[in-house]
Amino acid sequence: MYVALAFYSFHTAYTTVSQIGKYQENNKLRNYGAVIERFEKDLKYILVWSTNSEQAESLLQYEGQETFIERDCPEINCYITTNKTILNDDYENFDAIVFNMSIFWQPGGFSNLPEHRAKRQKYVFYGIQPSDSHPICNLRIDNFFNWTWTYKFYSDIYSPFIEVKNLVGNVVAPNRNVIWKNDLRTSTKSDVVRVSTKTKAIAWVLDNCRTNTYTTFGIQKLRKALKEFNLTIDVYGCGNLNCPKEGCSETIQREYYFYLAYDGSIAEDYVTTEVLKAYHNEAVPIVVGGADYTR
């Protein structure tokens, strides 16, 4: 996931490719030398910060430069790793250091931050968890980061959970100023046939039965409003209704007009793939959150 940093250019690199090769050879690591040698003069090094080896494995699955090439990144002169000692035993030699917000929730997370930093380095805050339920409050990280990399629009590196593309493959949303076309095709006979089996109002599928007060209160109000029209909301996963082994997709597609797409947070700009459960199953999503969904 950290390969998104390849879209940014880092200013300097302070080691040679030969040092990387020697390190890989001595430690029996996968050899990326064949592709790295093409970028000896301008290779940029990215460190994903970790506090122990177990954490390092969970934070980064693909080490080296190859992942940038395999994903067809616009910029591939980057080398990513969790090993702090790979550049002359000095993490100040890295062009950028990425800090996953999850490290701050662990014991000693704030005390294990770098003790020294080079002025040219870029410190990057990375986080995909909703800010309202995962606050990070510590004076030590005030003015600590150069860039932010999150799902929020105003992040330096914007990384949404989902993208909407047009028929030629261009991304049109999320965007601050989305122009939605009104000349969509009309429903066909096959469209009508597919939705003709639907007889129920709203489905909601839960993976976790623990919901916050805001959600519980909102659902109670929705149930009350639906009852006036002799309609209900069926909750799967908590209570008497359970999804079949293959999941609830076919049930939603066959029986429900609407799907409650609750992302578990009302944080600004937080829109996850939950809304796709409706779109993929020909149901109308009912969204609950703090995002501007017109974007």
UniProtKB/TrEMBL annotation:
It comes from the Eukaryota. It holds the Pfam family Glyco_tran_10_N. InterPro entries: Glyco_tran_10_C (IPR055270), Glyco_tran_10_N (IPR031481), Glyco_trans_10 (IPR001503), GT10-like_C_sf (IPR038577). Keywords: Glycoprotein, Glycosyltransferase, Golgi apparatus, Membrane, Signal-anchor, Transferase, Transmembrane, Transmembrane helix. Pathway: Protein modification; protein glycosylation. GO terms for molecular function: fucosyltransferase activity. It is an enzyme of class 2 (transferase). Belongs to the glycosyltransferase 10 family. This is Fucosyltransferase.
